[in-house]
Amino acid sequence: MAKPKRKYVCQACGSVTNRWQGQCADCGEWNTLAEEAPQTVFSAKHDLSSGGRQIRFEPLDAPGEKLVRRTSGLGEFDRALGGGLVPGSAILMGGDPGIGKSTLLLQAAANVANSGALAVYVSGEEAAGQVRLRAERLGLSNAPLNLAAATSVRDILTTLGTMDPPALLVIDSIQTMHSDQIEGAPGTVSQVRGCAFELIRYAKENGVTLVLVGHVTKDGSIAGPRVLEHMVDVVMSFEGERSHQYRILRSIKNRFGPVDEIGVFAMEGAGLAEVGNPSLLFLSGREEPMAGSAVFPAMEGTRPVLVEIQALIVRLQSGATPRRAVVGWDSGRLAMLLAVLEARCGLNFSSAEVYLNVAGGYRLADPAADLAVAAALVSALGDKPLPKDAVWFGEVSLAGEIRPVAHAGIRQREAAKLGFGRGFGPASAATSTEKGLRYDGLTLLPNLVDRVLSAS
Length: 456
What we know:
alpha/beta, Rossmann fold, Ribosomal Protein S5, domain 2, 3 domains, 9-stranded mixed sheet, 4-stranded mixed sheet, 11 helices, 25% helix, globular, DNA damage, damaged DNA binding, stress response
C-alpha cells in the first residue's frame, strides 16, 4: 500500500495543496491552510465491479407519491423558494452577520409549528434561552416549536431518530456542527462537508425539509467547501445593508423553481415584515424631479422591481485625477458607458468626478440598466431633470446602439401599474407597449442625449 500524502486545505475557499504555506494561492487569504487527515490509499487492483447490491431502475413515468409543497407562512419566503417548502429538500442560506437569517428562519419555523406540523430549530451559536428571548420579542413565544442548543450531529440525529420526522429542520449554523467521526475543529472543510452530508441524507430518507444556515466570507460568498453548494438543492442569499430597512432573499440555485427569484422584507421592531410591492419601497421620496435621477424597471427572476438610479457630476478646477465612485452597480460597466458617451456622443467626462448610486442600497446586475444609467449621467452633466413619469431600460453596445432586452412587456406593465406614463427603451420593444404608457423607441445613444439635453 502506498504511503499516504499530506494535504492542506484552505478553510476560506476549500483549495487543496500538498505543502503548507502562509498565503492561499487561490483566494489570497493568510494563515487559512490546515492539514487534513489523509484518506486510505488503495492499490490499483481495487475493483468495485462486483460484491455490491443491485439497484432498481425506474422509468420516468413510474407512479409515485407526488411531492406537495408546504407553505412557510411567509409569502415572500415561499416566492423565493419557487412556491414553498419541498419535502426532502436541502436549503442553504447565507448572509452577512446580523442581517436577519436567524430571525427569518425562526419566524418560518414558528409558522410551520403553528400550522400543526412538527418543526425543529437547532441552534449551535446561541443558548436556548437566547433564542426564546428573540421569540418573545417577535411574539412567537406560544408557538409549539421544538428548540434545542446542540453542536453534535450524532446527538442531533440520535434524538431525531426517536421521534416522528419533522416537516422542517433548521440548523443554525452548519459551521458550528461537528462529527466525532471526523478529525478537525468545527468549521473546517472536512467537518462542514461531513456534517452536511449526514444531515442531508437524513432529510432525503425521511422527507424532511432541511435548512442549513451558512457563514459568509468578507466578499459575500458562503464559507467552507464549494462542494457544499453542490450537495444542497437550493442556495439562497440574504442581502441588504444593515443601515437600510429592507432585506432581499435571493435564490441563487434552485432545483425546484426559477433562479434569481427574490423575496423582499423590511426589518421592523417585531421582526421581518413582508414587502408586497418593493417598487414603492425603492421609489419613496421622489416628490420633485431632480437632475441626475432616472427610474429603471429591473427584473429579479419573474418579478419586476422599479428602482431609482442617481448620478452626480462634479467639475474639477485643478488637474487632479477625477474619481469614479459606484454604489450598487458594476464599476467596470460604468467605465465602459462613460467611454461610449465620450466616443459616440461627444460628451466630456474626463475632467469631472462621477458618482453613481442605486437608491436604497439595491444592487443591480441587469444589463438593461445601461440606458437608465446613461440617462442619469447625461441629465446630471447638463443639469436637465428627466421627466418624472418616465422609465428607462435598454442595453448599450460599444457602438452606441440601444440593444433589445428580455421581458420588455413585463417592465412596461409594472411601470404603468405604478402610475408612470412614459417609457424609453429599444425600438424593438415598441410592439409590446402597455396600455396607458406612451413608449418612445431609441436606436442609438445620441438619440437619448438629444432628448435629454433638448428638454426644457
